[in-house]
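Hey,
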Amino acid sequence: MRLAAVALVMMLATGPAAGAGPCEPVTLVDEATGRSVVGAEDIALDQDSGRLVVSAHDRLAGADPGGGLYGLDLGHLATGGVRVRDLADGTVRRPHGIDLYEGKTLFVVDRGDGEIGSTAVWIIDLAGGGRRRVENPLLCRANDIAALDSTRFLFTADHGACGRIGVAVENILGLARGFVGYFDGETVRAVASGLDFPNGIAVNRRRDEVVVAATRGRELLVYGQAELLAGAPARRRLPLDGAPDNLSVTDDGRILVALHPALWRLALHRYGLPGGEHAPSRIESLDMAGGARRVFEDDGTRLSAATVAVAWRDRLLIGSVLGDHLWLCR
């Protein structure tokens, strides 16, 4: 979720959590380095077991982002400090979007060293330890990922261009050139194009649908899975009260979406600019008819710029782009 341009939207008033129970911070401590984990931007959850993986790196740390992929059990997660181990043993320093297939296979967008051509996807067998690295020019702006099985995946590319100049032109002119890509186990191809900063992506297996967050478009795009792979347009567009980031699917088939009420405040916060000390957070739960229920909201003083939420049983776990803690609600 790298928004290089400041997109002005109406700022809405924020307040305490709504729809969630008491919320408290959880600090993850990397057992190898002793440092607090910063920037837990994405979380992948296995609904059957409650096992989850957190993708994190410090976007303001420069050459050493200190990132990793950290496994946890949401059912036993406690507030305070929790020691965690990097599942990738330090090989993925800038992890971005992730997905967990059947609790065993982890898919990771790896932004590499941050330079053009360094982005790839890792497919990691958490049980057997095997790893596969997928490289392709179409992955240069890969943002989030959604597994279809233990080999195939969909991904979002938030821009059509790879280089900084091309990305800047798209941002300044507001060009919708992002796309959804598909890896069939051998090759990578685009299956949906002309999207306005596609960001989070999730497979709703109950409905055989794929949901894509259009951040600048302030909407969710809902595709039939087979139709998407065949290049068909979205079945539905669900307008949102904010700019969507990452998505997750609850056990009853609802979509949890992290929303940014004010993109200009997100941009200031994300890049560490003056006035960006805090950015508001909002989490909404949506049914596929478009009905929405707000489950968390904060003005940024407790948790700034929430980018993802996952729910399991009576627990809601929220991550953010720069925070040094997660937020656990019960």
